[in-house]
Amino acid sequence: MDLFDKLNSEGTDLGKYREAGHGYYTFPQLEGEIGPIMTFQGTEMLTWSINNYLGLANNSEVREADAKAAEKWGMAYPMGARIMSGQTKYHEELEQKLANFVGKEKGYLLNYGYQGMVSIIDSMVDRKDVVVYDSDSHACILDGVRLHMGKRYVYKHNDMESLEKQLTHATKLAETTGGGILLITEGVFGMEGDIGNLKAITDLKKKFQFRILVDDAHGFGTMGKTGAGTGEHFGVQDEIDVYFGTFAKSMAGIGAFVAGNKAVIDFLQYTMRSQLFAKSLPMPMVIGALKRFELLKNRPELKDNLWKVVNALQSGLKEKGFDLGVTESPVTPVFFNAKVPMVTSIMRDLRENFKIFCSVVIYPVIPKGKIMLRLIPTAAHTLEHVETTINAFDQIAKNIKAGKYTATEVI
Description:
Elements: H1 5-8, H2 13-21, E1 30-31, E2 37-40, E3 43-47, H3 60-73, H4 89-101, E4 106-110, H5 113-124, E5 130-134, H6 139-147, E6 151-155, H7 160-177, E7 181-186, H8 198-203, E8 211-215, H9 230-234, E9 242-246, E10 256-260, H10 262-269, H11 273-276, H12 283-298, H13 300-319, E11 332-337, H14 343-353, E12 356-357, E13 359-361, E14 370-375, H15 383-401
Parallel strand pairs: 3-12, 5-6, 5-7, 7-8, 8-9
Antiparallel strand pairs: 1-2, 2-3, 4-10, 9-10, 11-14, 13-14
C-alpha cells in the first residue's frame, strides 16, 4: 500500500467528510471585524464561536498599540531564539507583569499556548517521574503526556475518588523509581465549561506528595475577583505550583506564559525545546500583549460586562428548559436530544434562517443521542444578542421535537 492512499482516497471517511463539509461545517471563513456580528458566505451572522472573552480584539487602544509597534519594529524584530539573540526588555517586562498578576515569583513568555503546554510537560518530567492527569484534558496536555517516557495515570474527569486512587498508584511507583509526581488539570475545561476542583485537588497535598500544573487557558482573565484565574476563584492560587495561561482567549492575541517560583521558571527557560529552538515572539505581538494585559488588569468593567452577558444567556436558556450541563464558566454548552445525522440540517437552519453561527459537538465527545451547540459569550455581546439567540434555540428545540430535521448530507 502506498502511504498516500489513505490521504487522497475520496472513499475514506476523511475524504467524504472533507468533500461534503469543507468551507461550511469545517474550515468556515468568518470575515469582517472581529466581534458579535461577522460575515459568513456573504451573510451577516450573530457569532458565538470566537474566544474574544473581554472584547479586546477590536479595542481601539489595542489596535493602535498593534499598529504602532508594527510600524516601529516590523514583524521580524527581534531575530533569533531568545536564548541566543531574541531577548528584549519588553519580553521580560511582559512576563514579569503576568507573573505578578497571578501571584507567582517569575514568568516565562511562550510563543504559542498549545506548543508551550506540550513543551512544559516534556521539560518537567523524566522517565523516573509519574504524571497524573484528568481524562478530559485538552489535546495539548495529552500530546505532552505522550512525550513522557515514564509512567502516567489518568483519573476520571473531576472525580476526586478516582484521583486519590491514581495518586496512590503513582506514589508507590515513584517510591520505586525515585522520581516525583506531576498532577495536571485544567482550570476551566473549554469544551463543557466546568471547572477543575482545585480546592479538593490542592487539599490532597496534605496526604500525597506531588506538584500541580494548571492549564488555565479559559480561566485567565475570566475567573477570580481580579481575573487572575481559577486558582484565585477558589482561593488556592498559592497552592498551584506551575500556572499556565494563554493570550488567545481573554487577551485576543498570540502567545502564552508559564509562571511559578524562580527555580522552576529558570529551569524551563533553559530546557523547553519549543522555545530554545524557535524564533522569539515578534515585537508587535509583545507590545500588543502588554496593552491587552494593561486593559485586562485595569478595566474590571470588561470582565463585569462579560459575566453580565454570561449570566443573562445561561439563566435565559435554563428558564427555557435547556440543559447546560455542569458549566460554571463563560463557556456555554447547550445540549439537545437529537441524533447525529440531524446535525447538518440543524446547523444550516441556524445559519441560513436564524443567522446564528456557533460550534457543534457530537459523539464521541458527548454521549450518543445528544448534540451540543457550544456558545462563547464575550463582553462585546449585548443583551439583545442574548434574547435573539435564546428565541432561536427555543425554535430549534421545537423543530427537533416535531421531526423537522433529517439527514440530508454526509457529516
